[in-house]
């Protein structure tokens, strides 16, 4: 039966206990996330329990043939920067009734996907443990969003991305049933395949796909330390273990709905100290990064001169964000930076190198040894003496995107080439070429990011009311992503493909691999009911048509 809008809501009401909203204000709110896109949903649903999701998935599966536009997009905090949580059909908000930590120990934690990371961390810290792939948006996003986007952050250099920390999940596949997904050895995989049912067939078809295309898949793996692009077929089978979670993590809700996650945790180091390097030019960046990495810092982050200028301009607000009492003292703490700015001597890039350990002496030795090793570059360096001093640099780094979002002045943040990554050794050649493309198009932008991984967030400021700017987006994307390909990098390291980058996956991976991505999607979701247009099937035209106009 083909549904009208009112048929649809009344039919869903029969099978769904949670709230169903479709007032204009709600639809407007859910039309946006932190991306440059706008897509208006038809309904916004708040599932109350697993039964609600199972019933909804069954309902959509059964009615998809007559209603080809019907689909389900799970949404958590909506901070996705690639448009992953946007949909024209049903958006299912997981934050209202699907939050909470179910159990926690120093080694692992079980949580519902709509749990905000800030609440999750409060619980894990009671056991002196953290999920170290936390993001710069950790006060805003959920753990389910982190899994679905395979998020990462300042500690990823030392600890890896979210994909390293998912031990087990509960998920709802397209048949509307809930399953446990966890790593399997060969015998367990064979038993699963022998089931011959819906779940067994997913494992069988995925196993066959991976076996039949082993060489192509191996070669397709991006040669970088972090990647969110595509389906990570290369990570599923390592010769001993078949871990389907390596594929579900980062799949942006296109393969199933996640209903519960068991994460591995790591202990918090007792002490940490920050070593700051002020680079007046980028010429020696890769040599410098490569000399720092053997010291095994916990973080190696960076922000550029534009970010720093912005932070100085909005200094009082920045300090408020640090939530400190001694406002005046801290204002004085920024005097060296203000001085640099007035003299026009702001460094091109500021590198933050954080060391962690259990003893001061251990960290101090590393800092001294690092100083001795990199002194020859002739850059100004500072070993921060207190948490307060470190906090000023960290706040600038973490708040860089938010600052821009709030202070565009007629222009807004335009994240579209916001997450490129290449091996650090290529940075000296890659960065100037990338900047030249941006400068040739007269873009105003900031660069901040994870220098240790060669992953940079480039955020242009653009007036989206001017249609010429919307036209620039595919033009600049094409050029930047060609450059990324030249250096065998990835178009996204942590922010994922969404609507904004799915059309570029073919440019990055080639036709054969994108065809395997399509087959992967068909194995899990043959009717395309889960979050369509992300990972597979997205077009440049759809992306252009949905760029915000304000
Ligand atoms: C200021 C700012 C800073 C940021 N910094 C970082 C950073 O440092 N590192 C980083 O990696 N990202 C960063 N991001 C991007 C974003 O915060 C992360 O991707 C985050 O993990 C998304 O979480 P969320 O809860 O907002 O998920 P959402 O945006 O709601 O959803 C993200 C994706 O997950 C899917 N999804 C959500 N829940 C489920 C579920 N239960 N089952 C299946 N699929 C689901 C959605 O469909 C969508 O595709 C930043 C964003 C902002 C605004």
The helix tally amounts to: 23
- Provide the structure class: alpha+beta
Gyration radius, rounded: 23 Å
Classify the helix fraction into a percent range. Answer: 40-55%
State the distance separating the first and last CA atoms. 38 Å
Bound molecules: flavin-adenine dinucleotide
- By DSSP, the count of extended strands is 21
Nutshell version of this structure?
With 550 residues, the protein is of the alpha+beta class. Strand 20 (444-450) and strand 21 form a beta hairpin.
Provide structural commentary.
Helix 7 crosses helix 8 and helix 18 (427-440) runs antiparallel to helix 19. Strand 5 and strand 6 form a beta hairpin. The protein is globular and about 70 Å long. Strands 14, 15, 16, 17, 18, 19, 20 and 21 form an 8-stranded antiparallel sheet that branches. The longest helix has 20 residues, at 387-406. The mean pLDDT is 92. The chain is α+β, with helices and mostly antiparallel strands and 550 residues long. It is 41% helix and 18% strand. Flavin-adenine dinucleotide (FAD) is lined by residues 33-34, 73-81, 84-85, 94, 113, 135-137, 141-142, 144-146, 148-149, 151-153, 252-253, 257-258, 401-402, 494-495, 531.
What keywords describe this structure?
550 residues; globular; binds flavin-adenine dinucleotide
Write the layout of secondary structure elements.
Layout: H1 5-15, E1 19-21, H2 24-29, E2 43-46, H3 50-63, E3 72-75, E4 90-93, E5 101-104, E6 108-111, H4 117-125, E7 129-130, H5 143-149, H6 156-159, E8 166-172, E9 178-181, E10 184-185, H7 186-194, H8 198-212, H9 214-220, E11 241-242, H10 245-248, E12 257-264, E13 266-267, E14 271-279, H11 285-292, E15 299-304, H12 305-313, H13 315-321, H14 327-333, H15 335-342, E16 349-357, H16 360-374, E17 380-383, H17 387-406, E18 412-413, E19 420-421, H18 427-440, E20 444-450, E21 455-462, H19 467-486, H20 498-501, H21 505-509, H22 511-524, H23 540-545
Parallel strand pairs: 2-4, 3-4
Antiparallel strand pairs: 1-2, 5-6, 6-12, 7-13, 8-9, 8-12, 10-11, 14-16, 14-17, 15-16, 15-20, 18-21, 19-21, 20-21
Bound molecules: flavin-adenine dinucleotide.
């Amino acid at each position: 039966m083909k549904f009208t809008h009112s048929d649809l809501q009344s039919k869903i009401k029969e099978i769904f206990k949670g709230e169903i909203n479709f007032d204009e204000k709600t639809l407007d709110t859910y039309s946006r996330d932190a991306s440059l896109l706008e897509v208006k949903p038809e309904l916004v649903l708040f599932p109350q329990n697993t039964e609600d999701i199972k019933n909804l998935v069954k309902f959509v599966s059964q009615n998809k043939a007559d209603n080809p536009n019907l689909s389900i997009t799970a949404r958590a905090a909506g901070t996705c920067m690639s448009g992953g949580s946007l949909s024209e059909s049903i958006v299912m908000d997981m934050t209202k009734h699907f939050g909470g930590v179910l159990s926690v120990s120093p080694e692992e934690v079980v949580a519902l996907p709509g749990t905000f990371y800030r609440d999750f961390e409060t619980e894990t810290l009671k056991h002196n443990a953290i999920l170290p792939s936390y993001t710069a948006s950790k006060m805003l996003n959920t753990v389910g969003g982190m899994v679905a986007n395979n998020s990462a952050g300042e500690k990823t250099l030392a600890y890896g991305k979210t994909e390293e920390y998912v031990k087990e999940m509960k998920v709802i596949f397209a048949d509307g049933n809930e399953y446990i997904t966890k790593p399997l050895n060969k015998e367990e995989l064979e038993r699963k395949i022998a089931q011959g049912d819906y779940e067994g067939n997913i494992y069988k078809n995925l196993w066959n796909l991976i076996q039949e295309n082993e060489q192509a898949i191996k070669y397709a793996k991006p040669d970088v330390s972090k990647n969110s692009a595509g389906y990570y077929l290369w990570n599923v089978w390592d010769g001993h273990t078949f871990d389907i979670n390596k594929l579900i993590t980062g799949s942006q809700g296109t393969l199933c709905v996640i209903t519960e996650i068991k994460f591995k945790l790591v202990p918090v180091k007792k002490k940490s100290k920050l070593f700051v390097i002020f680079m007046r030019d980028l010429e020696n960046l890769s040599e410098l990064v490569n000399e720092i990495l053997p010291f095994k810092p916990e973080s190696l982050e960076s922000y550029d001169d534009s970010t720093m200028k912005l932070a100085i301009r909005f200094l009082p607000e920045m300090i408020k964000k640090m939530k400190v009492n001694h406002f005046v003292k801290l204002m004085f703490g920024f005097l060296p930076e203000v001085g640099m700015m007035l003299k026009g001597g702001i460094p091109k890039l500021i590198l933050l190198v954080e060391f962690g350990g259990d003893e001061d002496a251990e960290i101090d030795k590393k800092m001294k040894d690092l100083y001795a090793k990199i002194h020859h570059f002739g850059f100004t360096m500072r070993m921060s003496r207190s948490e307060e001093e470190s906090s000023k640099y960290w706040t600038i780094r973490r708040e860089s995107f938010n600052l821009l979002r709030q202070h565009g002045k007629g222009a807004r943040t335009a994240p579209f080439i916001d997450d490129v990554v290449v091996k650090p050794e290529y940075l000296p050649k890659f960065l100037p070429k990338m900047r030249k493309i941006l400068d040739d198009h007269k873009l105003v932008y900031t660069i901040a990011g994870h220098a240790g991984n060669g992953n940079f967030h480039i955020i242009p400021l653009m007036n989206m009311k001017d249609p010429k700017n919307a036209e620039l987006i595919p033009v600049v994307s094409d050029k930047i992503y060609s450059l990324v390909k030249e250096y065998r990098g990835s178009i996204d390291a942590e922010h994922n493909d969404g609507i904004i980058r799915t059309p570029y996956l073919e440019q990055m991976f080639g036709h054969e691999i994108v065809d395997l991505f399509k087959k992967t999607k068909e194995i899990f979701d043959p009717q395309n009911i889960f979050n369509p247009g992300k990972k597979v099937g997205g077009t440049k035209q759809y992306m252009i048509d949905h760029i915000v106009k304000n």
